[in-house]
Amino acid sequence: TVLQGIILLPLRAICIAFILLLAWLFASIATFRHHGKGSVPLKGWRRRMIQTTLSCLTRTLFFVMGFQVKVKGKIASLLEAPIFVAAPHSSFFDAIISALTGMPSIVSRAENLSTPVFGTILSSLQPVSVSRQDPDSRKNTVTEITRRALSRGQWPQVI
C-alpha distances in angstroms, 102 versus 75, 98, 148? Predict the structure, then answer.
């Protein structure tokens, strides 16, 4: 049992790293030469690639880490709920919610977009960026969330 743990730990780490690199690869492909960089929604194969592959890879990642999540009830569609709230919004567990709901756009601080690997994955989710240095950022964020919510399905849900 202890020996199994010693053997499985590096194997899990390698598996997690491989899944993250795959997610980065798919995010890079989906956003390659996409004009707009957050001002124009991803459409067609790009959007489907993000929703299906990143959702599947994120679920697999959490499974490898030992999490098994069961959804009770029906998840609201984009047209029913263009915005939904996840609370308490304090940890990496938010990624579970994202994976289970089809990889919605998130509200994130702008600095997160420049993080290696994770920044590319985050960019593919078309986040609403919040700049803590910009005094108008709060107003701009509310305006952007409202614009996306009223887009009638052109943008993904916003979490």
Answer: 10, 6, 16
Q: Please write the tens of the pLDDT for every residue from 55-114.
A: 999 999 989 888 888 888 888 888 888 888 877 676 777 888 888 888 888 888 888 888
End-to-end CA distance of the chain: 41
On the CB side of 78, how many CA atoms lie within 13 Å of its CA?
16
Among 113, 123, 117, 2, which residue's Cα sits nearest to residue 61?
A: 117
105 phi and psi angles, rounded to 5 deg: -70, 150
Please tell me the pTM assigned to this model.
0.83
CA 117, CA 112: separation in Å to the nearest integer? 10
CA–CA separation, 3 vs 39, rounded Å?
51
